[in-house]
Amino acid sequence: MKNSIISFLTGLILIASTTFSYSNVITDPTNTTNNKATITGKVIDQKTGESLAGAIVEIKGTNIKVYTDLEGNYSIDNIEPGIYSIEINYISYSSKTQNLTIEAGSKESVNVEIIPN
Q1: Which candidate in 71, 78, 79, 101 could, as Cys together with 37 as Cys, close a disulfide (CB 3.0–4.6 Å)?
Q2: Alpha helices of 1-117 — where are they, by DSSP H?
Q3: DSSP-based helix, strand, coil % in the chain, nearest 5
């Protein structure tokens, strides 16, 4: 009985130390898996300054596509560092493409004004 209690406690200590070590790896800021970037911004009508809800914001050459919210805001998370082209499309407006360089761990703000057709 005494040996099984000691084995049980040893197992608990091992599990606890493994969990603690793993959580430190996840939150370690030097860990490169945590250095992905975020792009946020707003899409507005160039002539009126009105926010455009439902505009499509797409990172060309990827499968990443989001839609703006009711205030014209968008956010794209977990982007690998690199050079990208962002294309904005909205019904009855000219599409617009903007190029940007994304650094590891950065938070980029890309506000775009588009023109009605």
Answers
A1: 79
A2: 2-27
A3: 25, 40, 35
Task: In whole angstroms, give the CA distance from residue 15 to residue 6.
Answer: 14
Strand ranges for the chain from DSSP E = 37-45, 56-59, 65-67, 73-79, 82-89, 96-102, 107-109, 112-114
Answer for the pair 58, 86: CB distance below 8 angstroms, yes or no. Answer: yes
Please identify which residue in the block is written with the tokens 């009985």.
1
Supply 64's token pair: 């990443």
Give the model's pLDDT for residue 34.
Answer: 67
Tokens 């560092």 found at: 81
Q: Is the Cβ–Cβ distance between 81 and 102 less than 8 Å?
A: yes
Predicted TM-score (pTM) of the model is 0.69
